[in-house]
Protein 1
Amino acid sequence: MNEIVLNHPLITHKLGILRDIHTGTKEFRELITEISTLLCYEATKDAKLEKTTIETPLEKMETGKLNEDNYAIVPILRAGMGMLDGIINVIPNAKVGHIGLYRDEETFQPIEYYFKMPENIEGREVLIIDPMLATGGSASATISRLKEEGVQKIKLLCVVAAPEGINLIEKDHPDVQIYCATVDRTLNETAYILPGLGDAGDRVYGTK
Ligand code: URA
């Protein structure tokens, strides 16, 4: 079991509005951002802090400091961009890399068309973000590509996951932890998640 599902009334509440066909672009974006922040909260629970001494108005104290620069956030274009604000709201100094993939119409394999990572990507902890983990093909290809670059610590953050996608990531990359807001029932014949929320990219960008 590589998935951590956020089980919380706030998430259930927000997901209900997010999924609703009547929810408009503005609210959809805001909710994706909020849920992404909550996913990030969970995914950074194991973060190592550096000891540092600060001074309150009353006295000195020792506290913990996150090395934000150690993180790279990698949205899978284009829907992944919808989650970015929610992550950098809480890790504002994280670096951001981008990957773009499309599906070959004959082989159905993901083909990379864009790949731009921050320097020293191999030394950073990478949080891949993509709202819908459907077949898992793009996420798995992204993880493989980052591993080729030498990245060792990778987490995958998504809003809605299908069992099919989770199974693929567990098979291909058992070392990668998945954080999701919910696990839905299944995929339909065109690889949309059921009940899902439709096309996340179209809903974030208002393209449909
Ligand atoms: N991508 C989406 O945007 N929605 C789905 O249901 C599946 C993949």
Note: The CA atoms of residues 164 and 199 lie 17 Å apart.
Protein 2
Amino acid sequence: MKYNSIDELLRNNQAWVTEKLALDPTYFQELSNGQTPPFLYIGCSDSRLALTRFTGTEPGELFVHRNIANQVSLTDINFLAVLEYAILHLGVEHIIVCGHYDCGGIKTALEGRTIGILDNWVNPIRELYLQKQEEIDALPTREERLNRLAEINVVAQVKNIYQTSIMRQVLYERKAPMVHGWVLDISTGLIKDLNVLTKQWQLHTCPLLLEFRLYAMLKNDSNFGI
Ligand code: CO
């Protein structure tokens, strides 16, 4: 693979701007008017996972949160701020959790390599592996075991989105975006939609709703008294 030098990055930028302006002289003026992206993309930090390239999307279409092994952590204030902003202020229609095969975070979780704080970060994935150990260990090759854990991880992170307070709030208000679980196969460039069923997580009654209902009962407010 050919890598650009740091100077080339700036030259590439100028060339790209020239190219864009040749096609549409108002492109950057329009871009600077603000953003209303339809998609929130939660992906891995892996340098190969620039989803814009793989989906042919333009600046302004994907709101992005990336971390190692595309995790939805309920205690990560960075992620929770991104999620809340995307849902409440940007009004995204779709949330995409996109994992990938050949993921270093997944390898660390599955094989328990000790390389520092990354071990702590991927521990929830290690837990997923331990839950599904029998199924994963039965697969014949290392690659298949890693790929399966990558898929299981995506499903778990989709589920985690439904555990967040903001998602429960907008589900209650029937304004929730759709959530999708994808895996990108770097060896083919193709995205696989895992078609994760989310209905079962949308129906959970959460403590927040119980509090709403209790409050409504006390206030005798029929809007909440369901
Ligand atoms: Co990765």
Note: The beta strands are 39-44, 62-67, 94-100, 178-185, 190-193.
